[in-house]
Amino acid sequence: MVRIAYCSLKKSFFLTALSVVAFSGLLKAQEPSPELTEVYSPVPPVVTPGKTNSDAPSDAIILFDGKDLDQWRSVKDTTMPAKWDVGKGILTVSKTTGNIETKQSFMDYQLHIEWRIPSNITGEGQARGNSGVFLASTGPGDDGYEMQVLDNYNNKTYTNGQASAIYKQGVPLANACKKPGEWQSYDIVWTAPRFNDDGSLKSPARVTAFHNGVLVQNNFELRGGTVYRGQPSYKKHGACPIKLQAHGDKSEPISYRNIWVRPL
Ligand code: MG
Predict the structure, then answer these.
(1) Fewer CB within 10 Å, N or C, the chain?
(2) Residue 17 Cα, ligand 1 centroid: separation in angstroms?
(3) Structural domain harbouring 25
(4) Pairing of strands 183-191, 144-149
(5) Longest alpha-carbon distance in the chain
(6) DSSP letter assigned to residue 34
(7) What's the angle, vertex CA 234, arms to CA 229 and CA 240, rounded to 5?
(8) Residue 132, domain CATH
(9) pTM of the entire predicted model
(10) Tens digit of pLDDT for each residue in 131-153?
(11) Residues 221, 236, 81, CA angle at the centre, nearest 5°?
């Protein structure tokens, strides 16, 4: 009797073990091969980064290298050269000659630009080192989409008009301003708006930006051009120049350097 019971126990253990092995084998057979989700094309192009985050990567278009304004023109008269002051490797706003813009037009891009508020800056509110980076210059004057440049190290103004705001639309996620006299950077990813043939909006402009390495705009969706008065709206356009603002305030002019762009 004992022997029979032992044999049937052994048999049922063997059958159970067999079914576990068979079941796990079945499970394995049903698991997709990891190779099915591995992609080998397209291959990303090789881009050699700069030594520091200020340096242009190997595929960037250099918009200002400290030497001249060959890549820029006057906005007032686009047949005329840009006449801001270049010296000691930097570019300083000339308020009397007005806004300047790139000769080349762009759609979507990554932009690096550095700016410095002079250490002897005076004024307050919007009249303290005001300039601006227009991410697309859609016409004369201040037409386009402005990321504000302003001294807000210790200077209050409306928050949708402070440094790194999308002017009167996007309050920055942080105030990352450095002291006047120190160089600061913007790293901006711009997605241009798209339009239908009838002029209606297909998809709005979007911007992601870092101010001195701090995220200040996170895939922010614009409601149209940035305007001083009234509500923003869109007007159909294609690729546009990048524009820098010569603001009419009376404070000391600010400077720019290391400007490069990577069309996307
Ligand atoms: Mg401005």
Answers:
(1) N
(2) 76
(3) 2-37
(4) unpaired
(5) 112
(6) G
(7) 105
(8) 2.60.120.560
(9) 0.88
(10) 999 999 999 999 999 999 999 99
(11) 95
